Amino acid sequence: MARNGSYVSEAVIRRMPKYYRYLEDLEKTGVERVSSKELSQRMGLTASKIRQDFNCFGGFGQQGYGYNVSDLKKEIMKILGLDRTYNVIIVGAGNIGQALANYTGFEKEGFFIKALFDINPKLIGMSIRDIMIYDLDSLEDFLAKNPIDIAVISTPKDKAQEVADRLTRNGIKSIWNFAAIDVAVPRGVIAENVHLSDSLYTLSYRIRESLE
């Protein structure tokens, strides 16, 4: 939903993080103003498409001036919900789970990992950047005592749905799923299923296309 209550397409929503990244880069290099044309050249979109995207949320530019980089970044930050903080847990402390826990960029954007969970006795009791790895059997007890906004699933795919069910039964409303399978969730729960191979397959397609 946009601020005026109108429907915003999935394609527009998927582009908003990209706008945010480009504006962040511009701000870091000291750029104060940018036009839709300049953004279009950087992003590979038409200027009219960019204006249409922003108009879904009210529009932020001034004709003849363009966009104030800092102000536009703040507006998109609000749209993306990045003006607040989130408590996160990771279920599955294998390669993907550990990589996510080691990435400090999440904290800079307000996502704070509070715990990891696993069934491997060799991992239980260890910590990653002072984030403890707990026994998966303690998941329900931990959720009962700690407010968690987002749960990350990075388990083998044959365990992912079972984990998702446990999470939702215990009050988790948002899931970021890295298992190689889409998880089903009840109404009112948000699940973002990430398939790392999709980007690689897209790259492979573009390579093949370029060779024809």
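The above is record 1. Record 2 follows with the same two-line structure.
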Amino acid sequence: MSTQPIYLSKERLAELEAELNELVTKGRAEIARKIAEARSHGDLRENSDYDAAKEEQGLLELRISKIQATLSRARTVEPGDYPADKVYILAKVKLKNKKTDTIVEYILVSEEEADFEKNKIAVNSPLGRALLGKAVGDIATVKVPAGVTEYEILAISR
């Protein structure tokens, strides 16, 4: 298990803490209720409801453990912690794909917060690594399975 810090925004930290609280209080109580109900059906050797409830309990405990491990290594970062003229974590970056002339915007976040559907990419992704430390006007070169893609940095905001 890694001991590297996990950098999170305050919002993501609060989300994880709320999820952990929900799982520990309501989640565990619900699983205990399901197990008790399944036990009341008799012989546990051939009780599929009991097996399903125990499986669900294992998955719940795994999620709780994962969140606790993440929170134990979490460090919060603020957009103002880094210079605004270069790309760092929590920067919103407007890019132009040099091949297709399409414009895209991404927010660089930790791996824990990455969500491509929300245009949040991890700083340790190939594109994220290529962008780190760059300024407006710089070209970021990214190796992708189809070859090499170049992005021009049009704007950086926090």
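The chain has two domains: 6-76, 79-157.
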